[in-house]
Write a structure and sequence with these properties.
Blueprint lengths: L1 E6 L3 H10 L6 E4 L16 E2 L10 H20 L3 E2 L3 E5 L2 H16 L5 E5 H7 L9 E5 L3 E3 L1 H14 L3 E3 L4 E6 L4 E5 L3 E9 L5 H7 L8 E10 L10 E4 L9 E4 L5 E4 L3 E2 L10 H14 L8 E11 L6 E6 L2 E5 L5 H18 L25 H10 L6 E3 L4 E2 H8 L8 H8 L12 H12 L29
Parallel strand pairs: 1-2, 1-12, 2-9, 5-14, 12-20
Antiparallel strand pairs: 3-8, 4-8, 5-7, 6-7, 10-11, 11-12, 13-16, 13-17, 13-18, 15-16, 19-20, 21-22
Length: 481
């Protein structure tokens, strides 16, 4: 019997798991996929928002501002990589300027730190590649960037190191009320728990319905992105938004934590909660609108494109509530859900306390996580010393990103199991470079096969069943194996 079972291993579910890992209770995370951060959390903008655009006196406003303030300390403890680079909301005429003033008023009411309205000269002095027709902007110095999946993985690893059990590849098929709490059913197992925390993202309405709560409905909203080569990654120093239109933050241009440049997303409502296809028209829309911010953007430097899905509801605000005794719903956690996630975890903890759960702090809680070994952040002397200790760090696997076998082995030996090429990609950046895995994927598979004792034919690109190899190459007649 678990004290708390969290359904969903996205950024919010993992933030809650890490927070509850501080206490002497038995916690598990139930996830339908084979890895954490496999849904919305792996494909979004990676922006730590300031909180100026959330409607005052909402959970979104309160939790976004609080979450923003927590990232520096979290990065000190978990070492996932956080850069406070600031953001601009760019305006190109007087009408945009009026909207910028409204955002400033919102931000002031929401108690956002370090915001100001700045003029054209200030913008171009700091961001020389911005469209020279820019009129004014809202500057927010407290905004920043992270890798959303690395943040989620860091939360999950630290939670697991502190005793939280991650039950992966376990799709929830039913939920039944019991005398002591709830029974969570999957295809081949049953999980007994006193409390359920429904943090299933796009599928949180479906999970709620399994427990008889039918008043939630989520519509997926797809956003498409373009990722550019590191060669032009320095074209933007800060996150560059356009003045929002019709409830959308619009197309942004932003540096990534790894040194690339990224633009997007657009916003299209779709019916399928697993529709991650990019479209020719959608990507053209993203590129065209990005050029309003940065006219000299070189589209020949695109190395890949992708799409992500966000939860959308008629209700503007986050829904975070104990809908029934022992069942906490988190519904419609869209933007700024990533920024808000650590504050959401505290909010859920308080809900559990108010519901009567006893939370006694662990005396042996491990607050810090050893970061992945990153040779690109080391001096030549440090790299040579590392190779002297372990020769695998001298074997380069991914030439685009200069990633060694030793770095891949490091991610394979952590507390959250990794059994797909994409899982390694999200942790060690292999296959993320200019060739997009064209050269290094076979070598990564060889390492996985050796270390995880897996047949090459069983290795997945992503989720279970996404096999990369169909069969062994046949031996020619008269040839030798």
């Amino acid at each position: 019997m678990y004290d708390v079972s969290i359904i969903g291993a996205g950024v919010v579910g993992c933030a809650i798991a890490r927070e509850l890992a501080k206490y002497d209770i038995k916690v598990c995370v139930v996830e339908k996929d084979g890895d954490v951060s496999n849904g919305t959390s792996k494909a979004n903008s990676g922006i730590v928002h300031g909180g100026y655009d959330s409607a005052p006196n909402t959970l979104k406003a309160k939790l976004c501002v609080k979450g923003n303030e927590m990232f520096k300390q979290l990065d000190n403890e978990l070492k996932f990589g956080f850069k406070k680079c600031g953001s601009y909301v760019l305006g190109f005429d007087e009408n945009d300027h009026k909207e910028i003033l409204k955002l400033y008023e919102k931000g002031t009411e929401n108690k956002v730190r370090n915001i100001s309205v700045v003029e054209k000269e200030f913008i171009l002095a700091n961001e020389p590649n911005v469209n020279p027709d820019v009129h004014s902007a809202l500057f927010c110095g407290s905004a920043g960037i992270i890798s959303p999946f690395e943040f989620t993985i860091a939360l999950a690893e630290n939670a697991a190191d502190n005793g939280v059990e991650f039950i992966l590849e376990t799709p929830v098929t039913g939920i039944e009320k019991t005398e002591e709490g709830y029974k969570i059913k999957s295809n081949d197992k049953e999980i007994l728990t006193k409390y359920v925390i429904n943090s299933a993202g796009l599928f949180s309405d479906k999970i709620a319905k399994m427990a008889g709560m039918n008043n939630f409905e989520i519509t997926p909203r797809k956003g498409e992105y373009l990722l550019f080569d590191k060669e032009i990654g320095s074209m933007a120093k800060s996150v560059l938004f356009q003045t929002p239109k019709e409830g959308s933050k619009g197309i942004l241009v932003t540096p990534t934590i790894h040194g690339n440049l990224m633009v997007g997303p657009n916003a299209t409502y779709v019916d399928d909660k697993e529709d991650l296809d990019t479209t020719k028209s959608g990507l053209a829309e993203v590129g065209e609108n990005a050029k309003k911010t940065m006219p000299e953007l070189d589209m020949s430097k695109i190395i890949t494109q992708y799409a992500g899905l966000r939860s959308s509801m008629e209700s503007y605000d986050f829904i975070i509530e104990e809908t029934e005794k022992g069942f906490v719903n988190l519904i419609g956690i869209d933007s700024p859900g990533l920024t808000s996630s650590p504050a959401i975890a505290l909010y859920v903890k308080d809900i559990l306390l108010d519901s009567g759960m006893e939370l006694k702090e662990k005396v042996n809680f491990i607050s810090h996580r050893t970061p992945y070994i990153r040779m690109d952040r080391m001096s030549n002397e440090e790299i040579n010393e590392l190779i002297e200790q372990d020769k695998s760090f001298g074997k380069i696997v991914c030439r685009c990103e200069s990633i060694s076998e030793g770095e891949i082995l490091d991610v394979l030996r952590r507390s959250i199991p990794v059994n797909s090429v994409d899982g390694i990609k999200r942790r060690a950046r292999v296959t993320s470079g200019r060739c997009q895995g064209g050269f290094c994927t076979p070598r990564v598979m060889e390492i996985m096969s050796r270390e995880l004792k897996m047949d090459m034919l069983d290795i997945n690109k992503g989720n279970k069943g996404s096999y990369i190899l169909a069969d062994k190459t046949k031996t020619p007649k008269g040839g030798k194996m």
